[in-house]
Amino acid sequence: MDLDFKKSKINPLRIYGGANGNKIGIIHNGEDYMLKLPPKPTHNPEISYTNGCVSEYIACHIFQSLGIDTQETLLGHYGEKIAVACKDFEMDGFTLKDFAYLKNTIIDSKQNGYGTDLEDILKTIQEQQIIPSAELEKFFWEVFICDALLGNFDRHNGNWGFLINRNIGKVKIAPVFDCGSCLYPQNDDNGMAYILSDTKEIEKRIFALPTSAIQQEGKRISYFQFLMTTENNECLTALKVIGDRIDLPKIDAIIDDTPYISDIHKKFLKTMIKERKERIIDKALERIDIDYNSG
Predict the structure, then answer these.
(1) Which of 50, 51, 107, 248 has its CA 20 to 30 A from that of 188?
(2) What is the residue-wise DSSP string for 125-151?
(3) CB 150 within 8 A of CB 179
């Protein structure tokens, strides 16, 4: 279905922050959505706009297929630009507060709220008092594994968090949102075709980049190296849970059903997800099984 968001009514009372692209509030089928327009690229000046809106739409649907509560998204166009509408989940008195707000409440934290040191994040998860720490850590690691599969380079403390209703004193983890940095959004069709033609270029985008926004010892974490070496039990549990849920035919169907994108774009996404599953997620699971059996 071809969605023309210019036909949607603008809601001027819905104002959204964030750095990646312009955002406006719209009403679609009687419900509030944040409409995101594609941002200009920061790493590839040869293209006019990134594929961030397409990445947002596909990644959110893949997250949902992996059993993660995720923001609902619709893909359409606004004029000549592909745009993604993200359903507004601030409703019924709940407002969104990102993890950075919570991190700022930990007085002896080594970093401020937006500091992404892994040890400091885990310390915040254990010491905060608004969500059971086991529930929050489970969510954190399951999202980390999904991001590893989809190559998210920008899951920082400002784009995940909580829904808080002060009137009734209730807090819950917010659905996953802001997935536009997954799935290599700064490649155009020519770049995708080039990568697919060269095994070394594919491997570069599995093992070298993208890295996680989360850091250890001042360096961004390599998804592959981290999952092949970590002994964190909660992370390894999440690895097994998400690994068991990955259904490549279902993911391929999500990509094939995505409108507006070319066949080479679809082939690229399906190839990279399959490669990341087999060479990061599956290899890390094999490592766990070997360690367990040898022990």
Answers:
(1) 248
(2) HHH-SSS-HHHHHHHHHHHHHHHHHHT
(3) yes
Per-residue pLDDT at 138 = 98
Q: Tell me the pLDDT band of 40, cut-offs 50, 70 and 90.
A: confident
Q: Count Cβ atoms within 10 A of the Cβ of residue 207 and give its class: 0-12 exposed, 13-18 middle, 19 or more buried.
A: middle
Amino acid (1-letter code) at residue 248: L
Question: What is the Cα–Cα distance from 217 to 236, expressed in whole angstroms?
Answer: 21
25 in Cβ contact with 33 (< 8 Å): yes
* Model confidence pLDDT, tens digit, residues 245-288: 999 999 999 999 999 999 999 999 999 999 999 999 999 999 98
Q: Residue type for 222, please?
A: S
Give the separation between CA 260 and CA 279, rounded to whole angstroms: 29
The distance from CA 138 to its chain's CA centroid, rounded to whole angstroms, is 16
| CB of 158 closer than 8 Å to CB of 98 | yes
Q: Strand 81-87 relative to strand 95-98: parallel, antiparallel, unpaired?
A: unpaired
Q: How far apart are CA 93 and CA 108, in angstroms?
A: 31
The single residue listed with the structure tokens 């850091």 is 215
CA distance 254 to 269: 11
**Rounded-to-integer distance, Cα 81 and Cα 23, Å:** 13
Sequence-distant (6+) residues with CB within 8 A of 74 are: 3, 28, 33, 57, 84, 85, 87
